[in-house]
Amino acid sequence: MSEHWEIYADWNPWHGCTKISPGCKYCYVYRQDEMYGSMVSSSECRKTGNFYLPIKRKRDKSWKIESGKIVFTCFTSDFLLKDADPWRPECWEMIKRRSDLHFYFFTKRIDRFMECIPEDWDDGYDNVIVGCTVENQEMADYRLPIFLSLPIRHKSIIASPLITALDLTPYLDATIEEVSVGGESGVDARPCDYDWILALREQCVARDIPFRFHQTGARFIKDGKMYYVKRCYQLSQAHKANIDYRIGKYLVPGTVRYEWKESDYHD
Ligand code: SF4
User: Ligand 1: which residue has its CA nearest to atom 8?
Assistant: First the structure.
């Protein structure tokens, strides 16, 4: 897949987030901040130097983010975080203005969606893809009925970090464009069992919904045996399993190695 990297871009208008559910326990934002020695608490959300990136131009006046790209949006926070409510309207304006880009964000706060959309949202902007994250059955049963009811043109389910077996069958309707599944990274990662992944794949195949296994996570159980997988192999090992189904248009953001930049921290 690496030959397609050029069609992706990152945009992190704010940085920092508060933990709200079990999937947040070893949040990668907190881990990365610690690794980079950030002096600001990871729970403190602040605008970044990249806030206006989608409408920034190069010297030759062309857009910094070239037309046609899929923009991974707000990957060092949650786009629907309450702390960011005052800043989001400007983001929607930029998203609307750049109708030549596809903006893809993940959220664990899908229950805030209707409070966060712009007035002219109607049945959704066509250039916005929303990934609803679920990590266990309780979160799936709470978030996905809400997600299915929302006016969003492009929907994906992100079952990651997968920390238990899941039954998504009740939620796999034709509006779901992709289910992407992965284990947890980091030294404290909770184990992910390959049987859970295969069961989710079966559920997707039965409904003919695209399925992607994007990463093994650090502790991976296969045939009852636990394997410790180094970060550098977690994506490739999942890819080698070769169990993706009908994957085409979108690359799951979980496969992106985001490189932290100075401008992600400071306004
Ligand atoms: S919602 Fe996402 S970014 Fe926010 S604390 Fe949880 S895992 Fe981290």
Answer: 27
State pTM to two decimals: 0.91
Task: Determine the atom of ligand 1 nearest the C-alpha atom of 17.
Answer: 4
> Closest residue (by CA) to atom 3 of ligand 1?
77
CA–CA separation, 196 and 182 (whole Å): 10
The pLDDT tens digits along the chain (267 residues) read: 444 667 889 999 999 999 999 999 999 999 999 999 999 999 999 999 999 999 999 999 999 999 999 999 999 999 999 999 999 999 999 999 999 999 999 999 999 999 999 999 999 999 999 999 999 999 999 999 999 999 999 999 999 999 999 999 999 999 999 999 999 999 999 999 999 999 999 999 999 999 999 999 999 999 999 999 999 999 999 999 999 998 865 554 433 433 444 444 443
Which atom of ligand 1 approaches the CA of 18 most closely? 5
Using CA positions, which residue lies closest to atom 4 of ligand 1?
17
